[in-house]
Structures are given as C-alpha cells and as structure tokens.
Specification:
This protein is an alpha+beta fold and about 290 residues long. About 40% of the residues lie in helices and about 30% in strands. The chain folds into 2 domains: about 180 residues, GAF domain (Beta-Lactamase); about 100 residues, 2-Layer Sandwich (Beta-Lactamase), CATH 3.30.450.
C-alpha cells in the first residue's frame, strides 16, 4: 500500500544517493589535486593526469597531447610516447585552436552494454577532448577514447581540475625547457674550452671528454668513452698517480700539479693537470679533470 510515508522514504533515498555521489566527487577531486601537486617533472605530471582521467572516466585509452619547443608530442595511459601531427585529427584541432571541449559519439554495441538499474538503454560512447589552457594558449589537450556517455556527469568538475592541471604541466614544461637550454649552453662551454677536459665517474670510467683533449691525446671520442682513465691517460709526475687519482681527489678535494702528458704517438706535452671532486646529489662520486 502506497502512502505519504513511502513517498518521503523515496525522497530521502534519492537525497542520500545524491549526497553520496557529491561526497564521492568531492573526495576524488581533492585527492586528484593532492596527487598532481606532488608530481615533479613533465613525465610525472603527465602520468598523474592520465591515471586520474582513466580512474574517473575509463575509456579504451587516455592520451595527452602537449607542446614542447613548438612540437606536439603525445603520451597515452599505456606509456606509448611519440611526436604527432595534429593536422590529421579534426577533433583535436578544434580543441587546441578554439580552446573548447570537443566530442564525438558512437553507439555501444549491444553485446558490450552492461545492464543495470541505473544504466540507460541504447548506451552511447564518446571520444572527448579537453583543452588545457594557460592564459590564451592551449599547452595540451587530453583525449579520452570511447568513454561511456553515462559517465559524463563529472565533466564540469574535470574542466575545473584541468585548469589547475594546465598550470602545473605548463610550469614543468617551462622548467624542462630551461634545463634543456642550460644543458646545451654547458655543452657548448665544455666543448669550446681551450683546456682539455674530461669527466670520470666513481670507478674512474671516462664519461665525457672535450675536443681539445681529444686532439691533444690524438684520439677519437669513440675510443675513449667507457674506458678506464689509467688505460687512456699517461702522466709523468711523481705527485700524480693516475691509477689512484680519484681517491686522491676525494680525499683532498682538489689537486693541481705540473706534469707531462703523453699522446698516442709518444708525443710529450708539458701541462698543468688539475682535478676536483664532482658532486652529484651531494655525494662525491667522480671528478672533473683539466689538462
């Protein structure tokens, strides 16, 4: 028998369901913001965005397209990463250039539909692309392939989250670009230094050598990298023992001495040899040698 009480119970049940959904949404968004704020580096930020989007919406794949040094790259939730020509994807182009959410719909085959009390009939799936915008520039676009339209209820929440994600990702890309530029400038300084320079690791393995020292030793880069220092460098000096040079440097911090350096054709060069400890992450784990 139906009565006013049954109606009130149904209203309470509906209200409780909506409150539970709202709470679940709020908890997810908070955890998503926390996860993204802890990401360090471009790859970590991208992986976090992909994982959160997949966790929330599923889909057959989640792909992030992002711009680095005027080139569009992509990475998907399965770890595939490559450069991409966005001109072949109209949906992606519209999202990037118009800075709007773009989507297309397909009907889900009958055999792939899951029946349940809350599932609509004739379920559809869509591919949706969200822009990640900073200022007036689209720095990235997130595509979710074959998402059930039934899951589109959190599109508004995702839009707000992606505004925050765009700021985080943009900052990491800027840092990456600055590091790349710094690396290029340091490499130029290293290679154009008139002094011979090489870098050894904690096992006295040669890891880097510049052109000046290659010419002095009359060697090629391919014959040097990866070899032991004592197998390549011959120094005539009682104060410098090449076999224990790294140990001496680590104990004393730095050394400097006049010496005769031997070339491959037994040529002798009177040089000043200096070596100083190379610190990586606060640890003395190698040395830089100038000749």
């Amino acid at each position: 028998m139906k009565g006013p009480l049954n109606g009130e119970i149904r209203k309470l049940q509906t209200r409780n369901t909506k409150l539970a959904e709202s709470r679940a949404k709020a908890q997810f968004i908070v955890s998503a913001y926390n996860a993204l704020s802890k990401a360090r580096g471009v790859d970590a930020a991208i992986d976090t965005i992909l994982a959160l989007a997949m966790q929330l919406h599923g889909g057959s794949n989640v792909i992030l397209y992002y711009l680095v040094d005027d080139q569009w790259l992509y990475k998907d939730v399965f770890g595939k990463k490559d450069s991409v020509d966005i001109r072949g994807d109209r949906l992606l182009q519209r999202t990037i250039f118009d800075r709007v959410i773009s989507e297309s719909f397909t009907k889900v085959p009958e055999e792939m539909q899951f029946r349940g009390p809350t599932m609509p009939a004739n379920l559809k799936a869509n591919t949706i692309v969200f822009p990640l915008v900073v200022g007036e520039t689209t720095i990235a676009a997130l595509k979710i392939d074959q998402r059930f339209v039934f899951h589109q209820l959190m599109t508004a929440e995702l839009t707000a989250f992606f505004s925050y994600a765009a700021l985080i990702l943009n900052n990491e890309i800027l840092n990456y670009n600055e590091l790349q530029q710094a690396h290029i400038e340091l490499e130029q300084i290293f290679q154009t230094n008139p002094d011979g320079m090489l870098i050894i690791d904690g096992d006295q393995i040669i890891r880097r050598i510049n052109d000046s020292l290659l010419k002095l030793l009359e060697l090629q880069d391919s014959k040097i990298i990866g070899r032991k220092l004592q197998d390549v460098l011959t120094v005539k000096n009682n104060d410098i023992k090449v076999e224990t040079l790294l140990l001496t440097v680590l104990q004393e911090g730095a050394i400097e001495s006049e010496a005769i350096v031997m070339g491959m054709a037994d040529s002798e060069y009177h040089c000043i040899v200096t070596a100083r400890a190379l610190r990586l992450r606060g640890l003395k784990s190698g040395a830089v040698i100038n000749i």
